[in-house]
Amino acid sequence: MKAIKDPVHGYIQVEPELLPLVDSPEIQRLRYVRQLGFSFLVYPGAHHTRFEHSLGAMHLASLMSKQIELAKEDHLLVTTAALLHDIGHGPFSHAIEGIASESLGRSHTDVRDLITKSSLNDELERIDVDPVEVCLMIEGTHPLASIIHGDLDVDRMDYLLRDAHYTGVPYGTVDSGRLIRATRLSNGEIVLDESGVQAAESLLIARTLMRPAVYYHHVSRIAEKIFSTAVYEQSRIDPTGIMEKMIRMDDAACMQALLCSEYSDVRHLAEDLYYRRLFKRSLYLGKEEVSASLRLANDSNERERELAGRIAEQAGVMPREVLVDIPAFPRDMSIKVQVQDRDNLLPLEEVSPLVTTLNETRRTQWRVGVYAPEPVINEVRMAARELLHIRPLTRQNRLI
């Protein structure tokens, strides 16, 4: 068994059967895909990768499968799926997932082609792991998928701990050991012993506090929008399968392709990003300031582009000088994990009043952003306020 030194978990043991998978091109590529996309522009230490996160998720999945006493074949399935769960990510992780989904009709969890049409398929069959079951685990439809694809899964445990470690943000503290020790298997379902409720609450608190501080930090969002706009423009002008190629690149290869683009607008955007000449916030709006229809437009790249074009026209600036960012409106955390007390199985939200409070907190954290280069911020702001029918700011809004 091979031991790998990890700054978060100490030594990670890689089972002999999994070593060829670790050395596969699909996993090795993840060494060059940053876990947090462009967060290194905010937190210089955030250069950790999907590769080390995949090892961490595999490690925690192994611990959990032993805790719930899975059979040997299920243990190997779970740890394998945890190792492979991120191979579908494109460059800079989630940065172009939206436009890739729009163009190709699939997300980073759709890995069937990557697994069944590559050498991974033969490696999995060699160790008696069904490739289709691995895909079902990653897609979240396998009976054991909640171990890596649930509300209290090993994926979240690892990335919260790892992201907090590398950014230096002190909000990602999760007692993964306690959570795993409190996990049980009951009638084929993952349940949590009541002794793990506080550890589960700490994970949900960490998720909530890390959202504005790291995952939705406005500088990271601006950088991602610049990057995704450059990729979109490149694919729009050169539609001959370029998106399929770019989604399989790593960070450096994709950035180099944009910097060397034959199209000047794409090159300018890539250069601004490379040298950290970022757009600024013209407007940054909470849910109380925008219409319900705008909240419903979340995660629609086409809607964002349409609004950006109208704002640019109204402001009298170049179309490429306005970016609109409408993140997905936070869904309620309705935890499917059941809590087992002495007599009953209860949903976590019935045991913990914190869940309702955290859901409301997540909604108040949501922001719509309108971004522009500094010289035209005021023109873009006035045009955006008029076109988006922005409600007047309250004293509380001004303080945020």
Automatic annotation (TrEMBL):
Start and end residues of each HD domain: 50-160
Top-level division of the source organism's lineage: Archaea
UniProt name for this protein: Phosphohydrolase
SMART domains named among the record's database cross-references: HDc
InterPro entries in the cross-refs: dGTPase-like, HD/PDEase_dom, HD_assoc_2, HD_domain
Pfam families xref list: HD, HD_assoc_2
Hydrolase recorded as keyword: yes
Membrane-spanning segments: none
PROSITE patterns noted in UniProt: HD
Hydrolase keyword on record: yes
Keywords, in A-Z order: Hydrolase
One GO term (biological process): dGTP catabolic process
Gene Ontology molecular function: dGTPase activity
